[in-house]
Amino acid sequence: MRFFRYLLPAAILAAPTFAATIPVPLDVNALVSKSEATITSTRFDDGDASKVFDADRDSLARTPSINPAFVQVEFKTPQTITGTRVRFTGDKHDWSLTADGKVVFKSAWKSEDPQTVAFPAPLTARVFRLDAKRLEGDDYVHFFDWELLQPGKLKSLTITGPKGDVPAGSVFSLTASGQTADGRTIDVTGDANWTAQGATIWRKPNRFSAGESGDLTATATLDDLSASVKLPVKGEEVRNKDFDLDAMYIERLPRINFDDNKSTGGWPKPGQRVQWMAHLHNWGTRDISAVGYTWVLDGKKAYEGKIRDWKADTDRTVSFPWTWEQSRHSLAFILDSDARLLDESSRGNNQVTIATDALAVGYWVEDGLSRYMHDHQRELGDGANSFEDWGQRQMTLWNQMFANAKYGSSPNGILDRVRLDKVVHVPTGALPLNGGLPTNNPDGPDKTVDLMWGMVTKNLGPGDFWEVKHGGPFENEYGLIHELDHARYLIDSYGFDVHKVAVDSLKLPDGTPMAGSPSLPVKGSVVRYDKYRGMMDSTHYFSEYEAYAWNRIAGQRARKGNQNGPDDIGAYLNEDLPASNVVRFVDRTGKPISGAAVEVHQARGAKDQWYGKTYVQQPDMTFTTDKNGEVTLPRCPFGDKIEHTYGIANSVLLYIVNSNGTIRTAFQEASDFNLEYWRGHKDKGRYEITLDM
Hints:
This protein is 10% helix and 40% strand. The longest helix has 18 residues, at 387-404. 41% of the residues are buried. By secondary structure, the chain is mainly beta.
């Protein structure tokens, strides 16, 4: 097996001896700076409206969970345009263009690429408005670009590409920019005509898959302008050529989308014939004439067979037919089960064992990382010799963490199990295949797995993320388990933390700051940490809160998505709250604090912060404790609904309690209310809070 890499110059300029006529965006920001135009819009929490018109592909303006949303430009004098171009996220959006109050165009668009619209006739108006509604994913509307197009000319064309070495066979992108007659630089990647020699176009006109040797040339053409780049291609050998037979993973066939088979919740139908398919690889340079294998079901030998004429460095598959049962069975595949090939470099990767009812995990891995794993996993000494072996180690770790998560509300631990069901190898640089993020959304349309992640070729080598060592992600990637828990639908527990900045505006009756006083002690920048730490904070175990969140949908396939984050992420926050909630305040000795004034403060948002919180002086509710020190709160005392995301996390209440002039504070997070509901107290939840009185 050979791998290559090429060197890519950063930019190549076309000779500006010709000119091209193309639609050019009106420079809205320049007109705003001259007071010749004004922009109004929906409120944004990331970026501002000027980012929509700045010709920067990476900048954006994003709403704080406001959907639909709009951006409007009002000019002092009417402007004539011949088309428009918009770009959102890769999720489906409905959008419309209004000119002087009249809707002139409507569209539904699902792509991370821009949509360009050419009008049948020039359009003149003073006020243009873009309305957009996001129909998939969350309610954060991302405005990346909105261009009002007019005829214009380019004087020159420039091609820009990635820097550094990239393996042969990898996928790379080129962009084209042009200089307008008035000196602006605009992106014309989508307008240019792309061709290549020694490379093939990959999915999009400006993405190319490099060959394995020689030079390749890519060219962008726009009317009379053109620019070309020649890229040298180089190669390198795989270092690990040792002989090893590898049982990589077990797939279930037929593949079924998680939202198919409504009557069975996406599972095969009872009694349906399924195939378990073992995926295998013969590493090294040695052909094998024959090797035995065994399938073991629930500890008993179920089938034996032989693989014949197995060529070096090739994959093979072996199937095991089975009649589906919606219950848990242990299924194992053992390669070289009669131990005839003891000279393998590793015997520790000859067996894979799964739970038949486990959730299906899929990895999309770029070739560069896969090669790196094959070169170096063996250095850990536990028998792993491939990316798939690394993946199986993550499944084993994850399942053990499930089994260990035993609490009062989950006495048998987390009930689900996971198994590696799909591994898709793609060229380096190819992810994502269908829009989104390379990691979170490696292949968005795929619904056959319950959890997916993309593994990109980055941060390899000593001192970097994938450094070869015990105790790091090269061995056990706890961070990936955390992210895939999001894909299941779990929220970040650390989002319940409260930082000092959230309470800085609060004052005591005498006008002095409350933060830092005996009423609200502060140490460092954090006032309080989340109550139930766990995997969704920064630990390596599942808390009781996380365990029950898993178990409330135990046995179900993915429900509203298999990528981080699905549409139902954190659904339990609002769905599982007791009808009423009794909070009892006691002093240090456990005595009820009666007759005390209790202020309930809901958290407001904080711009540009994940799980941002701000508490204001004015309480949202006030109570007086009864003789038992109790107050009764409504079903959702956090506000109209609990939000726990970027820009706002109103999921933590602040109590300010005044008893005979002594003021103390306490925080209570939504997790308490969810757990009380899960413990069976659906009508009335009860909580006790001890104050330093």
